Amino acid sequence: MSIFLETSRLTLRQFTEDDEDNLVELDSDPEVMRFLTGGRPTPREEIRDRIPRLLGYYERFEGFGFWAAQEKATGRFLGWFHFRPNIDEPRDGEIELGYRLRRSAWGKGYATEGSRALIRKGFTELGVERVVAETMTVNLGSRRVMEKAGLTLVRTFHRDGLDSIEGFEHGVVEYALTRADWERELQGMR
Ligand SMILES: CC(C)(COP(=O)(O)OP(=O)(O)OC[C@H]1O[C@@H](n2cnc3c(N)ncnc32)[C@H](O)[C@@H]1OP(=O)(O)O)[C@@H](O)C(=O)NCCC(=O)NCCS
């Protein structure tokens, strides 16, 4: 197992081809997929097709990509975080944060714990200058994680192709945190 990062309760490790079942199960819960596809599970074939691209990040970008989250106490697969450059529109020093956890893991602070650890590592070790994250405006749980991780709202905008998702008419929100603001926040806490 190639471990990328550990927090007090989580291990973030590289994905492998053996994670197909984990990913299928994660995406099979309509509640997990509610604000991503409108609840539609991701078919196994689609996940199988995506795995090589997901593994490809580790070679293309050292220190960035998709990380499988495991609960330290049980070793159980909980879901994943991504912390990666935007491949379509890469911007120097800018990294996108995202997360998807199985329902049984919600409400325990895991998404916040993993996000904060990735942000810290990004700013202190990986040369990241700005972290961005997006979610549906109505995905209040996801927005709360962004806020607890220190990101603030930048803008609300509309994107085509999301109209199967409940609340799509309210659009998408973008949040961000710069290294300078993160450092200032840390100083304030001392
Ligand atoms: C979003 C998600 C990752 C959050 O994971 P989590 O581990 O439960 O998050 P945390 O426990 O760290 O924090 C969640 C916060 O949101 C709050 N929250 C959750 N649902 C909420 C809702 N419907 N309305 C308001 N706040 C909500 C929680 O109370 C908590 O805040 P608090 O600590 O101030 O009470 C998880 O719900 C998930 O995987 N959802 C499905 C996939 C998804 O939507 N991913 C984001 C796509 S951009």
From TrEMBL:
<dbReference type="InterPro" id="IPR051531">
    <property type="entry name" value="N-acetyltransferase"/>
</dbReference>
<feature type="domain" description="N-acetyltransferase">
    <location>
        <begin position="10"/>
        <end position="180"/>
    </location>
</feature>
<protein>
    <submittedName>
        <fullName>GNAT family N-acetyltransferase</fullName>
    </submittedName>
</protein>
<dbReference type="Pfam" id="PF13302">
    <property type="entry name" value="Acetyltransf_3"/>
</dbReference>
<dbReference type="InterPro" id="IPR016181">
    <property type="entry name" value="Acyl_CoA_acyltransferase"/>
</dbReference>
<dbReference type="InterPro" id="IPR000182">
    <property type="entry name" value="GNAT_dom"/>
</dbReference>
